[in-house]
């Protein structure tokens, strides 16, 4: 790894006979390219956030609908359970277990 770092350092150092104006312009061009790349990255990030808002609103609406459906289903289940208990209580009240309805015959013990 150190070998690669040294090679890059040697490539990045200006040559002894290099024109200082060219070195300055090349660094300036590199800086401008970095600023443009950073600006494009920020623009893409903002566009992504803007496009994400409708998706989040739609998901929020779906979650709210699911919550309301779940609440209504639980309420219906409670009401059905109460009706079932009422019917069972009424049936128990109507049919007293000590009274047997119907006909019977007495058999001889012969």
TrEMBL record:
<keyword id="KW-0472">Membrane</keyword>
<keyword id="KW-0812">Transmembrane</keyword>
<feature type="transmembrane region" description="Helical">
    <location>
        <begin position="24"/>
        <end position="57"/>
    </location>
</feature>
<feature type="region of interest" description="Disordered">
    <location>
        <begin position="75"/>
        <end position="110"/>
    </location>
</feature>
<protein>
    <submittedName>
        <fullName>LapA family protein</fullName>
    </submittedName>
</protein>
<keyword id="KW-1133">Transmembrane helix</keyword>
<feature type="compositionally biased region" description="Basic and acidic residues">
    <location>
        <begin position="78"/>
        <end position="110"/>
    </location>
</feature>
């Amino acid at each position: 790894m150190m070998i690669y770092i040294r090679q890059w350092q040697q490539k990045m150092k200006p040559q002894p006979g290099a024109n200082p104006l060219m070195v300055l312009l090349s660094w300036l061009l590199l800086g401008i390219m970095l600023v443009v790349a950073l600006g494009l990255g920020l623009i893409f990030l903002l566009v992504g956030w803007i496009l994400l808002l409708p998706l989040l609103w739609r998901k929020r609406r779906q979650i709210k609908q699911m919550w309301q459906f779940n609440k209504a289903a639980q309420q219906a289940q409670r009401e059905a359970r109460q009706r079932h208990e009422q019917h069972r209580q009424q049936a128990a009240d109507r049919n007293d277990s000590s009274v047997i309805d119907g006909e019977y015959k007495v058999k001889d013990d012969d």
